[in-house]
Structure formats: structure tokens, C-alpha cells
Write a structure and sequence with these properties.
Blueprint lengths: L1 H9 L7 H21 L1 H10 L5 E4 L6 E6 L2 E7 L1 E2 L2 E2 L3 H12 L5 E2 L10 E7 L16
Antiparallel strand pairs: 1-2, 2-3, 3-7, 4-5, 6-7
Helix pairs in contact: 2-4
């Protein structure tokens, strides 16, 4: 076993290839969205337990996203701009939107009391944790 590791180290065979790096970078946008969706249910439960308070969905690594429940509405704040650059593409925002709200009615809005300049706000009906997360595939009419 050690001989194999030593042989790989001599030829740099243990390091990622250019193809490995390209594949990793190509998957980065998908992994970013999946991080948000993986944490959506625990964040929804936390937001339901503390209404009118932001519950973090993801913070590090980006994107930073937060849930806030107000009455029967779920507000989702996703930080778009950080460190002087945009963190998410329109497609990634759309994937997060669909992953959180499913085929339900949701819209972009801005809180009446103001909000963070660097973020986008999505708002829609607050789902039940029992039915969450919504189906991964949207059925088109």
C-alpha cells in the first residue's frame, strides 16, 4: 500500500488532473444550490419556532440564505452580492426559488420595513414541514 502511495507522489499521480479540476468547477453552481436546499427543512422548522426572526439556511460557504416566517408567509432572503461581486446567477436563483416553493405561488418582493441592499427576497405561502421539501421536479401544465 505504501509503495503505491509513494509511486503516486513521485509522479504527482495523487493530485487532481486538469479534467478533475474542470469537472469540480463545472459542478460548483449545482453544489451551491444543493447546499441551500439540503438545509431548507431545518431552517423552516427554526423559522416556524421563532416567527418574525431570520433563521439561517446557509452562511458559509456562500450563498448566505435566511428564512423568516410572518403569519402564513415564508420570506426567503438570499444574499446576491458579496465581496464586490454577484454570488448567484439568475438560473441559480430560479433553482433555489423552485426548490423552496415548488410549484406554489411565490414572488419576488421587498419587505415593507426595508431590507438588505445586497439581497433578493422571495415570498410565498409558508409550507408545512410535514410536506417539505417540495418535489424536486416541477410538473409543467
Amino acid at each position: 500500500m505504501y509503495e503505491r502511495v509513494e509511486a503516486l507522489a513521485r509522479t504527482d499521480g495523487h493530485l487532481p488532473t486538469a479534467v478533475d479540476i474542470a469537472n469540480f468547477e463545472a459542478d460548483a453552481p449545482v453544489r451551491l444550490v444543493e447546499r441551500v436546499l439540503r438545509q431548507a427543512r431545518p431552517a423552516l422548522e427554526a423559522a416556524l419556532a421563532a416567527p418574525n426572526t431570520e433563521a439561517p439556511v446557509t452562511e458559509t460557504p456562500p450563498p448566505r440564505a435566511f428564512f423568516r416566517v410572518e403569519g402564513d408567509r415564508l420570506w426567503v432572503r438570499v444574499v446576491l452580492f458579496e465581496q464586490g461581486r454577484r454570488q448567484l446567477s439568475d438560473r441559480q436563483v430560479g433553482a433555489i426559488w423552485a426548490g423552496i416553493f415548488g410549484a406554489g405561488q411565490a414572488e419576488m418582493d421587498y419587505p415593507s420595513e426595508g431590507g438588505a441592499w445586497d439581497s433578493i427576497y422571495l415570498v410565498g405561502p409558508c409550507p408545512s414541514p410535514d410536506d417539505y421539501p417540495p418535489p424536486r421536479r416541477l410538473e409543467l401544465p
